[in-house]
Every structure is written in structure tokens, then in C-alpha cells.
UniProtKB/TrEMBL annotation:
Keywords: Methyltransferase, Transferase. InterPro entries: Methyltransf_25, Methyltransf_Superfamily, SAM-dependent_MTases_sf. SUPFAM superfamilies: S-adenosyl-L-methionine-dependent methyltransferases. Residues 54-148 form the Methyltransferase domain. The lineage of its organism: Bacteria, Bacillati, Actinomycetota, Actinomycetes, Actinomycetales. This is Methyltransferase domain-containing protein. It comes from the Bacteria. One of its GO terms (biological process) is methylation. PANTHER family: METHYLTRANSFERASE, METHYLTRANSFERASE TYPE 11 DOMAIN-CONTAINING PROTEIN. Coiled coil: none annotated.
Length: 269
């Protein structure tokens, strides 16, 4: 007699795969905790120019790449671990002769030393261990020429003196819901880690963490894309259940969660 399948294997993908996979499947392009607004503020502070060589870690669907390429940089390199590049990013890269995608790990890109003037990474460090966070920051430092900028947007705990017990409990709650290890830091913690990796922090920004709130989805995606996303969620009961649970957890913990964005610079020699 064949053995019954496990409960986990019987679950639909919508209930067991990472939260960012689910949102992308349903049509969401902006997966940043502080939304497109904070991305724009971050990139305005990083000030990409036509002479910059830009490296972006984890470009995903390409929304940040779109903003970066609008500055017409000298070069753009997206470092993407996923071999299945989203069609939106592929189309964008193919339309820009100075742009390319490299399939590599952000911890070890294989790119040359000091080959970038601006490195950007959004919504990727939060999901890494402390060791891997430092490894990715160290790789950004290696890639940057002296005076180059490193711009990040991540999930953060607040306030800076948030009790460790609260942070530990929130990490467990979020990891269980999004099916990926979530390890945010406080704004002070993110800045300290960057400084330990050799950077000088220049800009600190924050925004409410409203990723799954309808008004933020409309602001991030535009009215038509947001409408399609809402329809896709409504038609998929498993996805609807999962997203409601994630949104409620974010709402319940607004007091201790926000989005942080930082621009740090590699010192000049």
C-alpha cells in the first residue's frame, strides 16, 4: 500500500513558498518594505549619474533598475542569483546597451575590485544570517571604488532600544509567515554593521512598513496593476488566506516595525 503523502507536500505552493514568491506570482512588482516612495528617496540621496558604474544586488522584477537606468549610467550590472530572470527585467536590460545581468551570489559576485561607483541592494539583507549580511556588505565594499556609495533599504526594528525579547519573538513570527528567515536590525544596528565593514554612513531614512496595505499597493503598483493584484488575490483562496495573515501580523506589530534606508560611502584613500 502506498504511503500517504505528507501534509507539507499536500499544501498548495501559496501556503508553503516564500512570501516574496507569492506576491510576485500574484503580480506585485514592488517588494520593498518602505515602498517605491522610500526607494525613490534612497536613490535621490545616492544620486546616480551618467558617469557611474552601478551594481544592483537582487534586482528582481526590475523596478529599482528602471529608476537607476533612467539616469543613463555608464554601466549597469544586475547581480541575480535566480537563473530565471523575470521577463520585465529581461526586457529592460535588453533595451539598454550599457546594462547586463550576471547570475551570481551577492556574497561572491566574481566582479572586479573597485569596478563600481554605486552599489544598490534592497530587501535582501533582512533575510540573511548575521554572517551573510556582513559578507554581502563586504562584497559591496570590495566592488566600490574609493568614494563610492552603497545604498540599501531593509526592514527595521524600532525604536533603537527595542527589547531583544521583542525582536526575537517578531523574527520567529515573521519567519513563520513568510517562510523565510527574517532577521531585521534596528536603524542603529544596520548603521553599526555598515561601519564595522568599513563604510561611513551619510544618509538615514525611514518609512512606515505598509507593504500589504491597499493604499501602499496602489501607490507602488499604480491603479491598474493594483486592481489586477487584488483580483488575483480574490480568485486564489490559499493566497488570500496567507496574505491576510501576513498583513495582520504587520499591523499588529507596527509599533516595532518600519523600513529603513541608508546611503553609506567607502572612504577615499
Amino acid at each position: 500500500m502506498p504511503e500517504p503523502s505528507s501534509t507539507a507536500s499536500a499544501e498548495p505552493d501559496e501556503l508553503r513558498k516564500p512570501g516574496h514568491w507569492l506576491l510576485a506570482k500574484l503580480g506585485k512588482r514592488v517588494l520593498r518594505p518602505g515602498g517605491l516612495e522610500l526607494s525613490r528617496r534612497l536613490l535621490a540621496a545616492a544620486a546616480p549619474t551618467a558617469t557611474d558604474r552601478i551594481v544592483e544586488f537582487g534586482p528582481g522584477p526590475g523596478k529599482t533598475a528602471e529608476i537607476l537606468l533612467a539616469a543613463q549610467p555608464a554601466q549597469y550590472t544586475g547581480v541575480e542569483l535566480n537563473p530565471d530572470t523575470p521577463q520585465t527585467l529581461t526586457a529592460l536590460i535588453e533595451s539598454q546597451p550599457q546594462a547586463r545581468i550576471v547570475h551570481a551570489d551577492a556574497k561572491a559576485t566574481g566582479l572586479d575590485n573597485e569596478s563600481a561607483d554605486l552599489v544598490v541592494g534592497e530587501a535582501m539583507l533582512t533575510m540573511q544570517s548575521m554572517e551573510d549580511k556582513r559578507a554581502i556588505m563586504a562584497e559591496a565594499f570590495r566592488l566600490l571604488a574609493p568614494g563610492g556609495r552603497y545604498a540599501i533599504q531593509e526592514l527595521g526594528f524600532r525604536p533603537d532600544d527595542c527589547p531583544q525579547a521583542v525582536m526575537n519573538e517578531l523574527c520567529q513570527t515573521m519567519s513563520r509567515l513568510i517562510k523565510v528567515g527574517a532577521r531585521p536590525l534596528t536603524l542603529q544596528g544596520w548603521c553599526q554593521m555598515l561601519e564595522e565593514c568599513g563604510f561611513e554612513v551619510e544618509t538615514r531614512l525611514t518609512n512606515p512598513m505598509l507593504l500589504l496595505e491597499p493604499r501602499r499597493i496602489i501607490a507602488d503598483e499604480g491603479l491598474l496593476r493594483a486592481f489586477r493584484f487584488f483580483i488575483n488575490v480574490r480568485r486564489n483562496p490559499a493566497a488570500r488566506t496567507r496574505i491576510r495573515a501576513m498583513r495582520q501580523a504587520f499591523r499588529d506589530n507596527q509599533e516595532h516595525l518600519h523600513a529603513v534606508a541608508i546611503v553609506a560611502r567607502k572612504p577615499r584613500r
